[in-house]
Structure formats: C-alpha cells, structure tokens
C-alpha cells in the first residue's frame, strides 16, 4: 500500500457516509476557507455538477466543497445536504444578502451492485458532511466507494470489488494528495510494480482475462447492458498557490495517472473526471504539481484495490492474492 491521505494538505476536510445494505454512498471534501478549483473530464459518460463554473474565464474563484458520490445522476442530489451543512456553518461565497456555498461534484454508476432504488440524497450528503475530519484515513469500501467495482466487460460475475483509495506526495514544502473512487470499465495495474492487480477475473480458472483482448473480439457486439455503468472520479488537493487555469492544467495532467493504472480508460462507457483544489500559498511550478498529481492518482487507484474487501458477490484483491 502506498502512503499518504487527502487531508495531509492543510485546509482540507473529508467525510463519508454509506448505506452498506444498498451498496452506495457519499464522500465529501470541505474547504472551510474555500479553495481554488479546476476540473478535467475525459470520460464520455460523465455525471457532474457545476463544472462550468471552473472554466478560467468564469466568475467564481473558490469552491467550498467537492462531492464524490454513488447513485449515478441521482447521487448529485446529495450536494443539497452539503449545502445545508455549509450554510449552518456560515461558509460560502458572500453575496451581501447571504453566503452561498459553492459545491462541485461528480458521480459513479453503482446501481447494478446493490439496491438501485436507494441512492445518495440530501440526507446522505448532510450526514457525510457531519462526518468530516482533517485527519481522514478511510480506504476501501466506504463512502462513494461502497458500491464501486472494476473489470466489468463480462458483467458482475467476472468483476472485482474496488472502492476508495488515497495517496499523497511531498517535495520540499510542496504537498500533492489525492482521493479516487475507482469504478472503471477496464483492468487495473500497479504501474510502479508493473503488475495487474484487478480487472476481469475468471473465478473458475483463477486468472485475469484481458479486457483489451475481450473487447477486440466483441467489437460492436459488446452487450449494451454494460455500457455507461462505470466511471472513475478523483480529487487532487495541493498546498501550491494555483489559479483556476493552473488547477485545470493539473487536472489534465493528473489523468495520466488514470492512463498508467487503468486499461482501457476514458472510454465511451466511462465518465472519468478529476478535480484539483488549491488551498495553500507555496509557490510551485504547475508542471511539477501536475506530474506529482498523476503519480498520486495512480497510487490512489492501486490503494483502492489493495484496501477493498470482497462484498456484494464481488471478489477482491485480498482474496486472489492469498
């Protein structure tokens, strides 16, 4: 397992809430003082909230929370619970008559794992906000990772359990950290060890089946049921002093971490999205921050596999590595 957590960066709080029976949940990062934020969406089936605000030319400079949720598009409603919490704490953008909390977010599709009629909502978002900590070390089957899975080209009988992973890196005074909710269509690799650690798995013969090879043979015959049932979403945080444009660039570079650890990635069946939030004042080269973000993302992906437990009929890395 790789070291570090999202909240290693000052000014970041992280909380989770999940319905284990329904196999879905919410993770939320809250920035009491606000954070400069950017985003890069590479998957072609995204479910997102307020990402247009993060364009460099648009008005709002800081966000107060980032929602990562299960439940597909239903899960975006959890943002209202986060807004309620922040309003109670008097946190938000001052518009003279009140303070308006700015929440951005993205969702994964986990409706095929548990109960598709129970999804993250206002209440879950609020409860996740109540659970925030500046020292969160949650990994695996928790929050938005509760119903996450990978390697789904042949359906759930061959898929593996995934979840949430975290990681951080430090260079001098510069900190770059990440959290990933791993719910990918493709196979998963620990790129630093050059090994496959999860994906489409044949339980009878105890071996991985290459998603790339299977997809080549299926071509246009790929089962439509499996389409758009994926998506990996992440948040990068850093104490670097960054503009919105810088944060967008870091998010762009951070997707290299996806490409190192997931194959195939950024498909028509994924909604892959990475947010970057800057909370600090450490002067740093944007490309260096982006390079570290990509490495942290790849490590958080590996940790999501290493730390998840078998559940909902899905096997885990822990089982097959015994």
UniProtKB/TrEMBL annotation:
Gene Ontology molecular function terms on file: aminopeptidase activity
InterPro entries: ArgJ-like_dom_sf, Peptidase_S58_DmpA
A Pfam family of this chain: Peptidase_S58
Coiled-coil spans in chain: none
Residue spans crossing the bilayer: none
UniProt record similarity statement: Belongs to the peptidase S58 family.
Protein name (database record): Peptidase family T4
Naturally occurring in which organism (per UniProt): Peptoniphilus lacrimalis 315-B
């Amino acid at each position: 397992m790789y070291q570090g957590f999202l909240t290693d960066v000052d000014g970041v709080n992280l909380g989770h809430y999940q319905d284990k029976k329904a196999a879905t949940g919410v993770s939320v990062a809250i920035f009491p003082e606000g954070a400069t934020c950017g985003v890069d969406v590479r998957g072609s089936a995204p479910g997102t909230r307020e990402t247009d605000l993060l364009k460099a030319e648009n008005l709002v400079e800081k966000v107060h929370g980032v929602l990562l949720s299960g439940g597909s598009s239903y899960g975006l409603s959890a943002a209202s619970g986060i807004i309620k919490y922040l309003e109670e704490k008097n946190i938000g953008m001052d518009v003279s008559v009140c303070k308006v909390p700015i929440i951005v977010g993205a969702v994964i599709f986990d409706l095929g794992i548990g109960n598709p009629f129970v999804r993250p909502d206002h209440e879950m978002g609020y409860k996740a906000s109540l659970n925030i900590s500046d020292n969160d070390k949650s990994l695996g089957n928790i929050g938005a990772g509760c119903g996450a899975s990978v390697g789904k080209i042949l359906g759930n009988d061959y898929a593996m359990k995934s979840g949430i992973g975290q990681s951080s890196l430090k260079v001098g005074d510069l900190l770059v950290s990440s959290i990933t909710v791993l719910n990918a269509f493709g196979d998963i690799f620990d790129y630093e060890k050059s090994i496959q650690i999860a994906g489409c798995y044949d339980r009878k013969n105890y071996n991985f089946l290459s998603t790339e090879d299977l997809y080549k043979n299926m071509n246009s015959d790929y089962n439509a049921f499996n389409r758009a049932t994926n998506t990996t979403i992440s948040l990068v945080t850093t104490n670097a002093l960054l503009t919105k444009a810088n944060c967008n660039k870091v998010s762009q570079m951070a997707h290299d971490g996806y490409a190192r650890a997931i194959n195939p990635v950024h498909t028509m069946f994924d909604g892959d999205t990475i947010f970057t939030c800057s909370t600090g004042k450490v002067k740093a080269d944007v490309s260096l921050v982006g390079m570290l973000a990509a490495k942290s993302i790849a490590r958080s992906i590996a940790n999501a596999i290493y730390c998840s437990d078998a559940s909902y009929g899905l096997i885990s890395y822990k089982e097959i590595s015994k």
